[in-house]
User: Fold these one by one.
Assistant:
Number 1:
Amino acid sequence: MPTRLRLSLASLATAAATAIMPASAALAAGDEARGQQLYDKHCLVCHTLEPEFHKEGPSLYKIWGKRAGAVPYFGKYKALKGANFVWNEKTMDEWLADPRALVGGKDSGMTFRLENAQDRADVIAFMRTLK
Ligand code: HEC
């Protein structure tokens, strides 16, 4: 096969792959560095990343993949008290969008919402590194 034809077939395949990628996959990727900036701006006031150093909210040290509401020595759980799920892309996205919605309308000490979906994807990309 002539080189030129092989090349154009390859670029055709790439174009097809790009075309079928759903928009949500692009969002789900998230930008970790931007996520860290957003974390510093919005979350740090209530959450440290140091083990057992709690502020208004629990420390988020190694929170990724852990059971919700189970950070040691954090005594101020409301909505997450007795929670029975783990932190993954889906639960974290729902929590950050609206903490009360995730827990069936229970009051939460976390009054903050991150309404922009791209901001959430970026913060989640950063949260994934906390393990
Ligand atoms: C006004 C203070 C406040 C802000 C701002 C805040 N949180 Fe929270 N957060 C809390 C409190 C309080 C809880 C405990 C919720 C409960 O049980 O009702 C919590 C719980 C959490 C949990 C669950 C931890 C666990 O123990 O399972 C995560 C994850 C979390 N917050 C992430 C974030 C992120 C990311 C941001 C920034 C986008 C943020 N929070 C902003 C106060 C805050």
Note: Residues 35 and 41 are 10 Å apart (CA to CA).
Number 2:
Amino acid sequence: MKPELDEPSGQHTTGHEWDGLKELNTPVPLVFRISLWLTIAVSVITWVLYPSWPGITGYVKGVTGYSSRDRIAEAVADRQILRLEQMPEFASLDVTELANDPTLEAKYSDAIAVLYRDNCSACHGRDLKGQTNFPNLTDDHWLWSGTPEEIEYTLQYGINHTSDDTRWAEMPAFGDGMLERPDIAAVVEYVLKISGSEHDTELANAGAVVFEENCASCHEAGGIGGMEIGAPSLVDDAWIYGGTRDVLTETLKHGRQGVMPGWSGRLTEEEIKKLTLYVLWAGEDGQD
Ligand code: HEC
Ligand code: HEC
């Protein structure tokens, strides 16, 4: 079909006809055409200046070499320099030296509290006193050791976590055939006894033998705890999981293996030092 002239409007038609209706071939308004060309121009300029097209081995970087990743990395580095400038001791001293400086707590405790809250309080509580399954960090009953280096190591590599250097601590499940039920019941009474709870004396005496044979290798004779392997003391009232008959039975039957994440790589060395000091300060503040 041929375009024809539409007399009244003086325009040509598109040449199509639908049931007698014809369409005028009016051009796209100028303003739309300009904006179309402008958008095309802007995108071409953007391709040239900024990263755009994906390729097989990478992407087209653009002449400015802009990268939002680099921008963030720079911003983070700036913040870190700023923070280090504010706490210069943490860049130069090791944790033992830091722990020997009595002036630091008053100066930095509030600032480090923010770091603690962001990373640790979900498990150990805002007041560091822990909760069921998560140990209290303010008492002096350590699973491992309470020296600055040992705490720093725990923070770096965690406990039962993914790093090759993580601390390994497993309370075996004695209910899987390692101990008969009556022996479990007896040793539970013994643990109640040594932790100062109400217990059945006769059963507890039988349990003492079971304990020496099965538990003392990790928890030490009398249940005072073995820090080399993170086996908690059973003679104090600081429980991770609980010291009632029911919970103790549960612990013995099914075992326990708490996970403390390692922070190396996620926090900087300085941040780990700060948190190590924060944990030490909380212990010194004497909340039993
Ligand atoms: C996902 C929960 C979780 C988070 C988050 C967490 N922890 Fe832990 N943490 C644990 C558990 C569970 C244990 C005990 C592991 C065990 O039972 O053997 C532990 C143990 C510890 C210990 C060893 C205590 C001892 O008696 O030797 C220290 C110190 C510690 N955490 C500090 C921290 C700090 C500081 C942070 C923040 C950077 C943190 N934790 C974050 C779960 C957590
Ligand atoms: C191979 C070493 C090992 C042996 C053997 C062992 N334990 Fe444990 N036990 C641990 C470790 C490590 C933990 C801490 C686990 C954790 O927190 O994830 C633990 C935790 C516990 C707890 C929990 C304490 C709390 O604070 O809630 C109790 C109770 C306990 N053991 C009792 C016993 C008794 C009783 C026996 C003997 C029948 C025994 N254990 C044998 C290593 C051992």
Note: The pocket of heme C (ligand 2) is lined by residues 169-172, 174, 187, 191, 211, 214-215, 217-219, 229-232, 234, 239-242, 248, 251-252, 256-258 (CB under 6 Å).
